[in-house]
């Protein structure tokens, strides 16, 4: 009996000591955190709505995840107790993931007259400019764009033309993600190979290559390869190219195509001796067009002009035009990026005025000033980017302004920047008008332990789906949509949870983002899947059409697909396969920042078209 008494005492002592030790076993074992993603969330005794509520959590609170059961998570509560919460109402974070450090507090423009836009893309309205060296507060970034604070207003700037300032140290930052990727090069096998402006024998010949010339391959379509030659994108027949590969050093590259987004105009010294020739006006149709010192792709780039700029054609030679720019410089540009005007209309120079009256500043060269407040009225002159005019009155969405000859004219309010008191900023309704009050759930496929497909060069589908989804998220958020990501980091989310979130949020559109892979490495292209013909097919058709238009990849159409996130989804839903990472050339295209920008734009515009037609 005495022996049993001693054993009981020892057991009691052990129990007491256990309660005195810090509780850490369950906490330290948890590898994931649940972050509450709604204002108030009930935490229950068990995994279901029928269980009693043990605690009410508020938005932003974090709890270690201990166990999963269907769409419910067991979490660790303060004091050592546990509870269950609905998985579709939280965000999951890996507690041990590497934290981002040394984020810049400010960024500075590396060029003059850098456009600041209302959203991350060239389709968003210009709301201001940065001059070289001008610093603004850093807010956030994605791979192509940086969100900044300019004059107490949020805006987006092309990341390529910013340097970052962290504390007292400044470092050049081209902002695009640094990756060890593989580039593909090729060698010409034909004696002479035509280089064309599009992937077709009907394309215009813009240059010629000789046997054994080396080219950099940046894309592929059908039997054609897209190449970069002298900073211009063009096309050659794949039949006459022998593919070779080499490793790219992990550093960002300079822009390579004529239509790179948001590249600012050059500010080189003006040429004081322009050649007097008969002038014909033309409008630039490319986003950015190189001006060269001779009429060929081998000519040195001496300046750049932007879409909408007015140039004066001096002479034409084959596929090239010698032009005079607004700064009186002359040079050569590719003629297929010019649209001739019926007659020349040279912009006038605004009068200098020291008065403090409210003014407008022109944001685009070639902006029309009209005789009345309507696009149907006559153009009385065209203004250059940076020109300023005194505001006389506001009539609807138009400003009545004083012209240099003391006459009056009208300028559309959405293409200017205003200064002065009580002057409204006027924004033309664009595609963003169709997103207001719309709820869109973006579902980056796979994640966590589910890597999805693996590309030829090791690209993980789960990484690419998240990368594309975040870019799309920023564009939709800037358009005032209510946007939700089913996952925002590398975590696993069940298919049921993804669908439940769509239902809980009453989504106007559910977009599941994926990349494709098959054993046949020659297969390529983009596909959109729907399940419910009446509800989903219009959404799939609209997005598919815009994605092909923006990326030029092979169109595999929109078709029926029996997928869980579509089949069990009561909301309009689509599953997108955005290209084949099992195709080495298409994989190279997919991982490029240029493609990511284009594909996110395609989905964005497809959604806009869908909502517009509803």
TrEMBL record:
Residues 31-93, 104-166, 183-245, 279-342, 355-419 form the SH3b domain. Keywords: Cell wall biogenesis/degradation, Hydrolase. Residues 246-277 are annotated as: Disordered. The keyword Hydrolase applies. InterPro entries: Cell_Wall_Dynamics_Protein, MurNAc-LAA_cat, N-acetylmuramoyl-L-ala_amidase, SH3-like_bac-type, SH3-like_dom_sf. CDD domains: MurNAc-LAA, SH3. This is SH3 domain-containing protein. It comes from Litchfieldia luteola. The lineage of its organism: Bacteria, Bacillati, Bacillota, Bacilli, Bacillales.
């Amino acid at each position: 009996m005495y022996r049993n008494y001693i054993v009981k005492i020892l057991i009691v002592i052990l129990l007491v000591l256990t309660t005195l030790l810090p509780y850490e076993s369950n906490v330290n074992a948890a590898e994931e955190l649940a972050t509450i993603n709604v204002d108030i969330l009930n935490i229950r005794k068990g995994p279901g709505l029928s269980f009693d509520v043990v605690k009410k959590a508020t938005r932003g609170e974090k709890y270690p995840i201990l166990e999963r059961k269907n769409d419910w998570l067991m979490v660790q509560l303060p004091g050592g107790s546990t509870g269950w919460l609905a998985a579709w109402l939280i965000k999951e974070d890996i507690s041990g993931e590497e934290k981002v450090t040394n984020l810049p507090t400010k960024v500075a423009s590396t060029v003059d007259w850098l456009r600041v836009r209302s959203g991350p893309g060239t389709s968003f309205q210009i709301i201001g400019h940065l001059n070289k060296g001008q610093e603004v507060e850093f807010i956030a970034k994605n791979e192509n764009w940086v969100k900044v604070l300019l004059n107490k207003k949020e805006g987006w700037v092309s990341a390529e033309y910013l340097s970052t300032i962290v504390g007292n140290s400044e470092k050049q930052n081209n902002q695009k993600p640094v990756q060890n990727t593989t580039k593909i090069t090729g060698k010409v096998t034909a004696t002479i190979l035509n280089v064309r402006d599009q992937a077709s024998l009907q394309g215009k010949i813009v240059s010629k290559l000789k046997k054994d010339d080396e080219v950099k391959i940046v894309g592929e379509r059908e039997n054609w390869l897209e190449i970069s030659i002298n900073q211009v994108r063009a096309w050659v027949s794949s039949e006459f190219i022998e593919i070779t590969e080499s490793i790219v050093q992990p550093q960002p590259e300079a822009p390579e195509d004529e239509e790179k987004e948001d590249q600012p105009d050059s500010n080189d010294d003006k040429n004081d001796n322009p050649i007097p020739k008969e002038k014909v006006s033309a409008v630039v149709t490319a986003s950015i067009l190189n001006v060269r010192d001779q009429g060929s792709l081998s000519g040195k780039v001496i300046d750049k002009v932007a879409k909408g700029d007015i140039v004066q054609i001096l002479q034409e030679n084959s596929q090239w035009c010698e032009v005079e720019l607004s700064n009186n410089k002359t040079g050569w540009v590719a003629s297929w990026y010019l649209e001739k005007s019926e007659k020349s209309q040279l912009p006038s120079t605004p009068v200098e005025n020291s008065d403090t009256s409210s003014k407008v500043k022109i944001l685009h060269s070639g902006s029309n000033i009209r005789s009345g407040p309507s696009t149907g009225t006559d153009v009385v002159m065209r203004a250059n980017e940076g020109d300023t005019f005194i505001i006389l009155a506001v009539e609807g969405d138009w400003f009545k302004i004083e012209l240099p000859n003391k006459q009056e004219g009208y300028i559309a309010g959405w293409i200017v920047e205003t200064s002065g008191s009580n002057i409204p900023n006027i924004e033309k309704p664009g595609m963003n008008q169709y997103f207001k009050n719309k709820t869109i759930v973006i579902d980056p496929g796979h994640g966590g332990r589910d890597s999805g497909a693996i590309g030829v060069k090791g690209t993980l589908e789960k990484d690419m789906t998240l990368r594309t989804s975040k870019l799309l998220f920023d564009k939709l958020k800037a358009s005032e949509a209510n946007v939700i990501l089913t996952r925002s980091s590398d975590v696993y989310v069940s298919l049921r949870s993804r669908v439940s979130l769509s239902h809980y949020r009453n989504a106007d559109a559910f977009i599941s983002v994926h990349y494709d892979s098959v054993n046949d490495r020659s297969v390529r292209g983009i596909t959109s899947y729907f399940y419910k013909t009446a509800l989903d097919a219009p959404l799939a058709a609209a997005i598919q059409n815009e994605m092909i238009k923006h990326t030029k990849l092979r169109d595999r159409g929109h078709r029926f697909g029996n997928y869980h996130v579509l089949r069990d989804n009561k909301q309009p839903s689509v599953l997108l396969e955005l290209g084949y990472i099992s195709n080495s050339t298409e994989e190279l295209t997919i991982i490029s920042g240029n493609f990511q920008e284009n594909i996110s734009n395609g989905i964005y515009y497809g959604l806009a078209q869908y909502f517009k037609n509803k």
